[in-house]
Design a protein that fits this description.
The protein is built from three helices and 23 strands. The chain has about 450 residues and is mainly β. A 16-stranded antiparallel beta barrel has the order 2-3-4-5-6-7-8-9-10-13-14-15-18-19-20-23. It has a two-stranded antiparallel sheet with strand order 11-12.
Length: about 450
Amino acid sequence: MKKTCLFILCSLCILQAAGQYRTPTDPKPSGLRVFTTRGESFTLWLDGFADLDGSYFFGYYEDYDSIPNGGTVRNARLGLRAEVADGWTGVFEADFSRLKPRITEAYIQYSGIRNLNITAGHFESLFSMEGAVRPREQAFQEKPMVISAMVPVDLLGIQVSTNQYWFLGSLGVSFDKTSYQRQNPEADSILTTSFDSRTVIAKVVAMPFVNNKNVGLHIGVAASYKFPAKDPVSGSYPFIRYRQGNVAYINRNQYLDTYVIKNIKSQYLFNGQAGFYYKGLRLQGEYLYNMTNLAKPLSGVEGPVSVLHFKGFYAQAGMLLFGGRQRYDNTTGLFMNPSRGRKWGDVELLARYDHLDLNYDPIKGGASQNYTAGINYYINDHVKLMVNYIYTDNDRYANGAGQFLIGHDAYGYPSKDYSQIIEVARKAGVDFHTVSLRFELTF
């Protein structure tokens, strides 16, 4: 605790002493403050932001499990970025939203070779457009379900990326440690073994119109191959469990849940992504396909199943109303917060559809879709207000592995068993509405 307080105190002191300039078209994230020594041999950036969220849920059956309304500090991050001469950069960022520090980024980057970046440490992979974007740069309050559930981010490893005019490519390898059960198995409610023990990730992106400030196009494909190591004690393969809630963080009900899938031999993840912007208009979407290979087949309706297939996608659009421009960073292939069209700010209208399907015989993890509408008010470079309305439609299998009520049986009683409910396909499952608010401050 003393170290945490000392870190915050030192950071605030640096904030007071640091120069405070920012160029609106600077490709670096907004809100960074810089301190530079003479000769510019060393530059220190202090970076931070906080998100205050509140959500209200309604429209679900009264005899279903309740969804409590509430508010929370969604993000409270503070980071330091040190740039040293000859292309060396060090980044450290911690999140304090859970009342104790949690490291979100800690890596070293070398960019001394033209059009080449080498990153090592704990960082977010460029595998997905929406997966790699930082929370304060998100157009919506939360990322789509398929991104949160499947995209490999926050990896401990090495990534090499290159940006050659209209081409962007990256290749990474992660070395996440495998977690084994404790000495006292009864102390754990669920014995888990990490699946992300070894990961290889590759991505290529074409960016036509790269020199045009008014229009841009992003077309990319990415692939990830994961191969876990066997348990050195038992010799067995690890297992995986996909659990995902809907797109409001305050709702902790994880309706989508495959429960434990044992004997994972390997996994392939494929991503197709596209983005387009024209002045204040932005379009973006991704499709993800998950192929999980099992060391021991499961018993399916039509026979043994050795490969599981899961999938999901999202499509979203945004439009600035008062002359602002969308901003795209061609060194990372990511959208950033837009520039404002008026001195008092700008307003952006947004819409998104996202879908995640975790059903594949014999796994019944559930499927869900969200319809989201949003309004963002960019007051200045440091303050943003967000309002999201979401309609969530879960299917009959989205019962949180038997935890949540999803329909009614023949006697009219609410039931958690999808085989017993009598509702038709479009009526089964937990459907509800959400209104979420966010106040964001960046400094």
